[in-house]
Every structure is written in C-alpha cells, then in structure tokens.
Amino acid sequence: MGSDIVEISINAAKALAIFLMMVQIVPMLVWVERRGSAFIQNRFGPNRIGPLGLMQLIADAVKFLFKEEFLPDKKRRLLFLAAPIIALIPGAVAFGAIPLSVPIHVEIFEFLGQSWGPYRFAFQSVELGIGIVFVLGISSLAAYSILLAGWSSSNKYSLFGALRASAQMISYELALGLSLVGILLIYNSFDFAEIIAQQQGSLAFQFLGKDIVWSFLPNWGIFYQPLGFVLFFVAVFAEANRLPFDLPEAESELVAGYHTEYGGFKMNMFYIGEYGHMLVSSALLVTFYFGGYNIPFVTPDQVLAGVESFLGLSSTGSSVATAFLLHGVFLVKVLIFLWVFIWVRWTLPRFRYDQLMDLGWKTMLPWALANTILTAIIVFIFRTQWV
Amino acid sequence: MLSSELLHIGLNHYLGLSAVIFVIGMLTVLLRRNLIVMLMGVELMLNAVNITFVAFSSFNQNMNGQVMVFFVMAIAAAEAAVGLALAVTIFKHYKEIDISAFEQLKS
Amino acid sequence: MEAAIVFYGLSFFMTVLSLGVLFNPNPIMSALYLVLTMIGVSLVFFMLDAGFLAGVQLIVYAGAVLVLFVMVIMLFDLKREVYTFSRGFFTRLLKVFTGVVFLIILVKSFFLVPETKELLNSSTQMTTKNLAGLLFTEYIFVFELLGLLLLAVAIGAVALSRIKGGTHAE
C-alpha cells in the first residue's frame, strides 16, 4: 500500500476512484447505446428529457431504485441476492490491474512542517508483474454470477440461459487465452506496463540482426499480431455475452435468459457487470494492440519534455500533467472501442447455438493455435543471430 | 518463545494449513455419499498437496516444486473431466448419484 | 505481524470453507464453498511469492474445473440430500478417527523438516521465466507425456458422455 500516511491515503483514493470510474461509465454507455441504436436504426431514441435526452439517465436510475422488490423462491434466496453482487466483482477488480497512464513521480515537498516524498504513484489500483494472468483469472470468475442467477431463479428459461452462457464462456476462454500467446511471445512479458512501453514510437523491429524502421506506422501490437487481434476481438465479444453472441439472453427463445426473474436495481447490477466487462475488454484491446496510453509516433518521454518546456511547470507538475494527458489519450482509444461494441451489437444478427459452438471450437481454436505456432517460428527466426 | 514462533510465519505454518485441508478432503471422500461431492474432496486433497509443493519451493528457493504443481493441476483437470463424464453416464443410467447405487457390477 | 494476521485469517477462512464442503448437505453449496477455497489457495500461492501459479490456479480451478462441477450439478438438478453421510455409526466413527490420526501423523512429521529458512522476496531465481525454462528443458519428457494424457482424457470423456448415433439422433 505505501510507507507513510500520504502514500497510503492517495493509493486508497486512487483505488476508489478507479472503481467509481467503472460504475459511472455505465449510465453514459446506456445512453450512448440507446441513442446509438436509434441512430443506426433510423429512429430518434430517448430525446424528451433534458438536452439530447441526457436526463433520461437520472429518470432511469430513479425508476430502477423505486421498483418493487420481488423474490421468487424462499430456499434459494441467499444465492439469488448474491448473484448480482458477484456480477460486479470481476470487472471492478480486473480493471484495477490495467495501467491507465504513465506513473506520476512526485518530488520531495514540504507540508505541515515536514518533508514528504519522493513518491511514485502508478496510474492503476495494483501493480502486478503477472497482470495478464491476473486479469484472465479474475474475469474467468464471471461465469459464476450468471450460473447462480440462473439456478437460483427456479425458472427453466433462466437455467437454460445460464448453462448456455457458462458453456459459451468456457469455450471462448480457450481461444481468448491462446490468442494472447502471440503477444506474450513478442513482448516477452506478463506486465502491462512493459508491453505498453514496447509500443512507443514508430514501427521498428530487428530482422536478421539489422534494425528496420517503418516511420509511417506507429509501433502498435496490431501490426505484429493481426490474426491474434481478430481472434481476441471476437472472443472478447463472446466473453461479454453481447450480440452476435448473446445466446444466453436470446429474447425469442429464452424470455430474457438468466436475468428473467430480476428486476429493479438487481437487474441494473447485471448491466453494470456487463458494461464493466466491455470496459475491461476495450482496455485490454487498446493495451495489447493499440499502444495503450501512447500517442502514435511519440514516446511518453518526449511528451514529458514537451509539457515541461511548453507549460513551464515544476517537475512534479509536468509529471502530473503528462499522466493526465496520456490518460486522456487512453480514454479516447477505449471509448472508440466501446462504440465499436455498441455498433456491432446493433448491426449483426445473432448466431444459432450450434453455429456458436462450431465457431468457437472448430474455427477460432485451430486458428489461435496456428497463430501461436506461426508467431513462435517468426520470433525464433527474427531473434536468432544467423552468423 | 511460543508467541514469537506463532507470529513468525514459517514453512511449518503452511504445511499445517495444507495438512488440515488434506484431511478435510480425505474425510469428504470417506464420509459423503454423493459421487460429485466425493470428487470435490479429491480436488481439495490435490490442492492441499499443491500448497505443500509451493511452500517447499518458496522456502528452499527451488523451482522444481512449482513445476510439480503444474503437473498436478493438469492431471487434476483431466481427472475432473473424466470423473464428471463418468458421473453423467452413471446418472443417466440409474437416475441416482448416490455412491451406494453403484455397488453392483452388472447393470 | 501483518503477515501473521493475513495468514491466520486466510487459513481460518479456508478451514471453515473446506468444512463447508464436507458438511453442507446441498451439493451446490458444497461446490460454491469449494470455489471460495480455491480462491483462498490462490491467495496462499500469492503470499508464497508464486504469482504466476496463483493466476493459473484461478484460471484452471476456479474458472474452468469448478464451473464444470457447478454446471453438472445444476443439470442434474440435485436437491438437498436426505442421506448426506455414509451409513453405520461405527464406520463413521472409524473414518473420522482415521482422519484425526492421519492429521496428527502429518503434523508430527512436519517437525522432522529441518528448521525453516526465511522467505526471500523477489529473488532472482524464482521467476516465471525460470519456471518455463525448467518446464521445457529438464521436464520436457513429462510435459509431452502430459499432453498425451490430456489427449487421451479428452477422447475418453467424449466417448463416455456421447449419445449413440451422434447428438442429433432421435
């Protein structure tokens, strides 16, 4: 946590702020989703309350809070109430491990007659050397909330939805994990910060001992791993249970899937969980394949130098300014991907269940394996010193 | 001093934890009648052994223990898959998951 | 001091949760207690400075194996059991007695272990890279054998749970 009171309190506030960031993005996304779907389908969407219908968010929240509570079965009530809370956890915890910007360096300063510092605050809740494994492990726990919700509802449709969802999640987790192996082979690390650090500047790599620089492309993971990107992108959709893979809540077959029996704020918590999953997925996509918080063609050190000379701040101030500037860049990239999630949802039709399983096991898994082997061979050829 | 020994977490503490969990897993296999819960007992025992491996590996600065944990995990996953497949087959046949229903050798 | 509090709290919870697996008559609750125990095991790995194994423990056990358990129990729609434990008073007593004796033997045998060394944090030897190095050099044969085992198990599981004539028959 930290060594003295300032460091501990700032780290705690940071963890809380990152959790709140995940929770408060949900109403925004709900609004974007409703307006965006209306735009795509040539409708108006909610436009009556407030400017652009923005006050609809508050109206929705009030409605969710004052809905009547109803609980189906007495025997399974504990699990019924626990499931929505469990749905929140994986997204919130996993999001805390992703670096959102460069660390802030604070120089020694005087405060209340004492000297404090120097400090280094990472722009994330926890810094882990094994970040990728941690995020994959935590997000694999998301299946439980769905299973418990479906089972404790004592409803056939809910149970079917839950079983479908968990089978789908297990199947696509394989492709998800394997598509990341290529990235691991190339960047040689489980640490998000290190992966992002290797994606700065313009495209440069070593080929047969020679340095090759392509200055017209940024040094992003997608140019090294195009196939891995496509596989990861598709698998992430399946993990988030969104269209075109939203079989667990297929309205035409299963009423509403695992959350048929939920209403009011409890259903809203499932929403928060789903959007949290989207947020984590977008952040991972940006981190692995689109340079994380790096501005294209520019390294964070150059940004820091630019801020220092342009704004003329102290070293602490320019570090803070750089961190927030790069955080803004990261947020823009993540928001683009969140929009892609919504865009895809309102564009593509739903898969049939056997098509879904075929795609997962017979198409994506072999391609992910092929990508792994191919990347291993290419990395071996490029890194070996051939005399 | 006993209290300092208790407060200083060493290898023996981890081994004690793993022993307790192992015995609980063993009792689960011995005492329960439900086939699936018995499989869960086996998983508990395997995990207790994993804790022992990792504890020895960390305290002796030897990586071989962690490699063993890898193998144990893979085998445990395989065992769970086969065990559950057997349980499904048996349940389809007898409509019963109680272990005492499987005493006869012929169906 | 903090390490002691964390360790004792964690081991208390893990013991209670695994006792829940043993005593709860509802199989689904047993499975959920087991999930929490597995997360506890992962935390223990983390405390022992084996972060990679902690993550793998979460992915493999909590994320895959136990989801299968829970799914199978839900598919069977198992209710609260009337007969939770095996029959016979003396048999039960004997089994519990065996367990206790085994526990005593185990704990006694730990004191044969030569005195414990300090847990060195972040030493150069204990990295994930070294784990992979060992796995692919010294243990490569076992590793390949394990791949073969997993293949055999996959085929076996499919053969066991297959419906005759394919999934779309009748």
Shape of chain B: elongated
Give the % helix of chain A: 55-70%
Structural class of chain A: mainly alpha
What is the count of distinct domains of chain A? 1
Q: Write the H/E string of chain A, N to C.
A: HHHEEEEHHHHEEHHHHHH
> How much strand content do the residues of chain B show?
under 5%
Q: In the residues of chain B, how many domains can be counted?
A: 1
Structural class of chain B: mainly alpha
Provide a count of the helices of chain A: 13
Overall 3D form of chain A: globular
Estimated radius of gyration of chain B: 18 Å
Task: List strands and helices in order, with pairings.
The complex is a heterotrimer of chains A (387), B (107) and C (170).
Chain A: H1 5-40, H2 56-66, H3 77-95, E1 104-106, E2 109-111, E3 114-116, E4 119-121, H4 131-139, H5 142-152, H6 156-187, H7 192-197, E5 202-207, E6 210-218, H8 226-239, H9 251-254, H10 264-289, H11 300-311, H12 315-345, H13 353-383
Antiparallel strand pairs in A: 1-4, 2-3, 5-6
Chain B: H1 2-7, H2 11-31, H3 35-60, H4 64-94
Helix pairs in contact in B: 2-3, 3-4
Chain C: H1 2-23, H2 27-47, H3 51-76, H4 89-110, H5 128-137, H6 140-161
Tell me briefly what this model is.
Chain A is mostly helical. Helices cover 63% and strands 7% of the residues of chain A. Chain A has one domain (5-383).
Report on the structure:
The complex is a heterotrimer of chains A (387), B (107) and C (170). Chain A has helices at residues 5-40, 56-66, 77-95, 131-139, 142-152, 156-187, 192-197, 226-239, 251-254, 264-289, 300-311, 315-345, 353-383; strands spanning 104-106, 109-111, 114-116, 119-121, 202-207, 210-218. Chain A is mostly helical and 387 residues long. In chain A, a hairpin with a 2-residue loop joins strand 2 and strand 3 (114-116). In chain A, helix 1 packs parallel to helix 12, helix 3 packs antiparallel against helix 5 (142-152) and helix 8 runs antiparallel to helix 10 (264-289). Chain B has a single domain (2-102), classed as Helix Hairpins, CATH 1.10.287.3510. In chain B, 79% of the residues lie in helices and 0% in strands. Chain B has 4 helices and no strands. The model of chain B has no long low-confidence stretch (mean pLDDT 84). Chain C is mostly helical and 170 residues long. Chain C has one domain: Up-down Bundle (Four Helix Bundle (Hemerythrin (Met), subunit A)). In chain C, helix 2 runs antiparallel to helix 3. The radius of gyration of chain C is 21 Å and the shape is globular. Classes of the chains: A mainly alpha (387), B mainly alpha (107), C mainly alpha (170). The interface between B and C is large, with 70 and 80 residues.
